[in-house]
Design goal:
There is one protein chain. The protein is α/β, with parallel strands linked by helices. The chain folds into two domains: about 240 residues, 3-Layer(aba) Sandwich (Collagenase (Catalytic Domain)); about 40 residues, no CATH class. The chain contains five helices and eight strands, in the order αβαββββαααβββ. Strands 2-1-3-5-4 form a five-stranded mixed sheet, with helices on one face. A three-stranded antiparallel sheet has the order 6-7-8, with no helix packed on it. Helix 2 crosses helix 4. It is globular, with a radius of gyration of 22 Å. The relative contact order is 0.15. The N terminus is likely disordered. It binds zinc ion.
Length: about 325
């Protein structure tokens, strides 16, 4: 009897599921060098991680976010949604693992007072005009040697766009922007934190960090694998544009938030698609859906929205 039980347990242990991870998805960037950071995670007391050599990256939330969800000033008090989302995104990246159990080589720390050094990533309350209009990562310095980053979060994030998107979408949005800082490009071809945002509501189809996201961050981080990353910061594959970067506002043609003077996915754009149901006598329910289309292929489809009748019904 005891023998039979043991055998059953062993059988369960050996049952594994095969998971296929598309290679190079999301693309890491070959011409974006890792931030130098601020030493090892083991030196940060709150980490409680002796011997942890992960590279510390310091994050701070700008004073512009000292506003309540209605936009009223709250001196010394960061907007609760943004505070929670930044802490969530930091914890999510710090704990995420690839398919082999490795974490990224980075350890994000929220350091509002600058006690550990100069800020690497400043999160600012600023209007975002390009792409989806919710967030934008702006490098300080010139590629490949960017010295620090600014992440613009549009003011409408402060009340979850009038509660049109969820807390997890804001956490996912910050995680996505941190992903750019640590060497990842936008992508819609696999399940990745680097997929985009519904430009109308601000909801995001993917808010979790996938094993391949971690793998590709480390491929950008390592000097021996970075040259094999498939994409350049300007969206090309050969990086002939040289340095670039630094001048924000040059994001053309639907890259959601890169603002780098070039563009990622230059042949992509958002479009609104209409459809009708219950078509009868020329009338029916009308729906719309926002889609992200690249080179004529749909990369991402948003939620269907009900518009009303396509003509007066009687
Ligand atoms: Zn992006």
């Amino acid at each position: 009897m005891r023998m039979t039980q043991c055998t059953a347990v062993l059988c369960v242990i050996f049952l594994t599921t095969g998971v296929v991870y598309p290679q190079n998805c999301p693309p890491c960037l070959k011409n974006q060098n890792p931030l130098p950071g601020h030493g090892a995670a083991a030196n940060i007391p709150s980490c409680v991680c002796p011997n942890d050599t992960r590279r510390v990256i310091l994050v701070s939330i700008g004073g512009g976010w000292n506003v309540d969800p209605n936009g009223n000033s709250t001196p010394g008090q960061t907007n609760v949604h943004v505070w929670n989302a930044v802490n969530c995104a930091i914890a999510t990246w710090n704990n995420a693992q690839d398919q082999f159990g490795n974490k990224t080589g980075y350890y994000f720390v929220l350091d509002q007072s600058g006690q550990y050094g100069s800020t690497d990533i400043k999160i600012q309350r600023e209007q975002v005009a390009s792409g989806g209009g919710f967030a934008q990562s702006v490098p300080v310095g010139t590629h490949p040697n960017v010295t620090s980053w600014k992440i613009k979060l549009d003011p409408k994030n402060g009340n979850l766009n009038n509660n049109q998107f969820r807390h997890e979408d804001l956490c996912g949005r910050v995680s996505h922007e941190l992903g750019h800082v640590i060497g990842l490009a936008d992508n819609w071809d696999c399940t990745t934190i680097m997929s985009g945002t519904d430009p109308i509501t601000g909801m995001r189809p993917v808010n979790t960090i996938a094993p391949n996201d971690v793998l590709q961050v480390n491929n950008n981080l390592r000097d021996d694998t970075r040259p094999n990353c498939p994409q350049c910061y300007d969206g090309t594959t050969n990086c002939e544009g040289g340095g670039g970067g630094g001048d924000e506002g040059g994001d053309t043609g639907g890259g959601d938030d890169t603002g780098d003077g070039g563009c990622i996915d230059c042949n992509c754009h958002y479009e609104t698609y209409y459809a009708w149901t219950n078509y009868e006598d020329g009338c029916g329910y009308k729906w719309q859906q926002v889609r992200y289309v690249c080179d004529g292929q749909i990369r991402w489809e948003g939620q269907w929205e009900y518009l009303g009748w396509s003509c007066a019904h009687y």
